[in-house]
């Protein structure tokens, strides 16, 4: 029996003209893929299509072999972590995680224990009653990871999640994310603009330029490639910054 | 986030603004009291007063409840539908009732809901035999909802639109249903601005006068404002007018405090046109009820305005527009409106900043007082009837004949005070926002004082400033109250001209003027919304 | 280019406050009145031209909302008022106006004044009058009530809009009319009438607006109202109902202020008021009946107006004394 890919885009088209995007790729279960590319190239569009926030004009998206193209975001088996605003600012930490287990917040004792467990897992035991504003940026992202951990969905989508945390903290978080991924057994698609982050965490790269996948390759040796003008422009631009 | 020196300046300026507002309110009342030598209230009047007070609070409470009951789901539906044809028009349209003289709106409402209105004709076609009558409490409520539902929506909608787009994505990702989304996300976001809107609506309804009498069906529907008007006008008893005004102010404040409608740090303001996309509700299942709700709300608010439009179009527009008197009235109205709005926005800015500065030092009794007074200033002014303020100022200035500047100044001042609660509610959250966003950065760049005000804070608040300014102009355009005592052949405003036409059988001219007045308000609102959007999007 | 047609007037409008023509006259007279009197289409501008031609002076109008506001303005200003004449009080306000002590006897021969039932006063001179009447829409009502009694006891589904006596002159007029006819039984009559009352508006404009927009087939107004519709709009649709008991009278008067800067000129104006130069402008500009002879031919419409045989009028003193109690009685009856 051949294993189904964890996620597959088959001729997915969204929008037209300069703003349009067209993606085809597949990823095996348990892989970590970094999505790179200049800003405005369509990285977030790809992630939003996978998450179900955008609906493709044509083409199919499959997750674990199941066609999810027409499904609502919550029905796709996906967890998502953004760069910012992952937590509802007016709800305390445990509620924010609890919503990941039951979106109507109808939780039994076992579920609440699961929430505590997830907090413990990310090193924030006892933070449950605090409000997001009283946490540091890094701590808030840990909570977001805790929620993803508690949800145990097969696909984890990350949209520049550790941007703005500082190099040391970002590396710690990246490590934590990889641990959690391994425990849950999830497949990861991670948008980043940091080549080091991609090198450290990802086994594979999707390089996006002008709404197309310019390169789909293993991470090893990718940044040393000289056959991609877009990549050179991207890295050159990044070096200047 | 302000420097120490900026805090000091803000507080001093705020206290100065408070003194101005306080003086502008208290001085005329004091002068009227001393003039009239208050006769007090006899016991037979006591029963009467008790009755009308009860009715005032009842109708204001019900009107507020209904307005908010519809405004909350409508604002929610509008936030869920960030893109549909005519959305921006609809939101601009929602500002127009604010600038309509109550009588014009009443006539528009009657075209729809009256005995011979469209609603009754429709029911007649369906076989209903006797027409339903709105005169009475139901008429008052319909009129107040017509005026205040759109206002409340405009105040509540920004609270939802300001939420970060990730919220809706997260909600979609987690699969939160409509009910839990409302309970856990939308309502907590709306609650504060809904309370602020409710406070404003309650005050507006408590002081309602023309609508209550015209649609109330008889003297059983009498508000305190009617008694104040009667005391000052027919009985010429300034003492009693002031006394009743104070009762009105006190009672309304007590009710608002009890319902916690006043202490709420109001959140409202710049309606940025482009709300976030809503992947959480993009499915077709949600679209139909949303569309129905928005459609119903649009028809409820739009139909009476359409009636005003239709009767206005029957007027001889080319003659009206060719009339020099019209242009004089329009210019005067606009000049007064612009001056009043400038003053109002200036006072509101100072008060909002002082309140922010005072809030930054919790625990200090003095600062608590400053914060409390600053927010009260945004309420009190609406509760003192303009006709009382106008009379007091008139007395202080020793009459108005021959002078032009003094009456113009008083009309401007009174209009500015009336607009203050609206403007403050629009500006407060925007100010809060810029303090949070740009505070640290400005301080780190050494941008302080006036420099910062001009380069950072003012541009950041421009959308709110524009909206507040236009709200104030619109209010002033539709206002008749302050001018009524002064009237001279040299100061002619649009509502004045409109009432003059109505008062001499020229109903069709008046309808034409009402159309022009409404059109002017609409135009200004669209201008403000566009201006706010352009600058807002550049900053976000 | 249509849009440029308004340019001159728009430019003039930019400077609205200097729009008043500068008249080079040594003598000047300021007259306080109500605004509809001096509206562009009112009698004011024509009277001003006629009087200025006669006196070689400058006549200045100051208009406030209505007669009641006029009196209030006087009370607020006291002896600081700059006017010489106050024009536009009605008889119900005369007692209070006299009590301010701001007026002075006119000392003129008023034999030219002709008012139904007669009116003579040493301080105030009438310049026009009208009877209150129920105006009906002949397209909605075939047979209008022929008496106040029929109005009170008629079909409750045929509605009338009236004005509030607490806030408006016609409202007070109807109150006094009912009192004149029903006396002690007025409260009961009001209770009956209240079933026919669609709504009670704060002023005449609101009521008449409701009436002309077709919301109610009857409204309280003046016997002269149909003249406007017949002359200016050329329609016979709106007519006054003649009541057999008689109609209540409203007389509008003018008075001389004791502090008038130029009393001689002010008296000259009061004299002029009783001549055709003033009176000719009243019928078709103020839509009231002239109080003194005119030299014009009244439009035919005026001959079709209801002209009551019986006239009711309480003396100013009676009104001043009983107004509060009668309004309370009205409130009680109407609030049931």
How is this fold's topology laid out?
The complex is a heterotrimer of chains A (241), B (540) and C (336).
Chain A: E1 7-14, E2 21-27, E3 32-36, H1 43-51, E4 58-63, E5 66-67, E6 78-81, H2 93-101, H3 109-121, H4 137-151, E7 155-159, H5 167-184, E8 187-191, H6 195-201, E9 204-209, E10 212-218, H7 229-240
Parallel strand pairs in A: 3-8, 3-9, 6-7, 7-8
Antiparallel strand pairs in A: 1-2, 1-4, 4-5, 9-10
Chain B: H1 4-36, H2 43-80, H3 87-93, H4 96-99, H5 102-113, H6 118-125, H7 137-161, H8 165-174, H9 178-206, H10 210-216, H11 224-233, H12 238-258, H13 284-313, H14 317-322, H15 324-359, H16 365-383, H17 386-396, H18 405-444, H19 449-478, H20 494-502, H21 507-539
Helix pairs in contact in B: 1-12, 1-15, 1-16, 1-17, 2-7, 2-9, 2-13, 3-21, 5-7, 5-13, 7-9, 7-10, 11-12, 13-21, 15-16, 15-18, 15-19, 15-20, 16-18, 17-18, 18-19, 19-21, 20-21
Chain C: H1 7-14, E1 28-34, H2 35-38, H3 44-55, E2 58-64, H4 67-77, E3 85-90, H5 91-99, E4 103-104, E5 124-137, H6 148-153, E6 160-163, H7 169-182, H8 186-194, E7 197-201, H9 204-212, E8 218-222, H10 225-232, E9 238-241, E10 247-257, H11 263-273, H12 276-279, H13 282-285, E11 289-290, H14 300-303, E12 311-312, H15 316-334
Parallel strand pairs in C: 1-2, 1-3, 6-7, 6-8, 10-12
Antiparallel strand pairs in C: 3-10, 4-10, 5-8, 5-9, 5-10, 5-11
Helix pairs in contact in C: 5-15, 7-15, 8-15
Compact description:
The complex is a heterotrimer of chains A (241), B (540) and C (336). With 540 residues, chain B is mostly helical. Helices cover 77% and strands 0% of the residues of chain B.
- Sheet of most strands of chain C: 12 strands, mixed
Class inferred from helices and paired strands of chain C: alpha/beta
Terminal Cα separation of chain B, in Å?
19 Å
What's the name of the CATH homologous superfamily of the largest domain in chain B?
A: MetI-like
Distance between the amino and carboxyl termini of chain C: 61 Å
- The total count of helices of chain B amounts to 21
CATH topology type of the largest domain in chain B: MetI-like fold
H/E order of the elements of chain B?
A: HHHHHHHHHHHHHHHHHHHHH
Summarize the biggest pleated sheet of chain B: none
Helical proportion of chain C, percent range = 25-40%
The number of strands of chain B is 0
- Overall pLDDT of chain C: 88
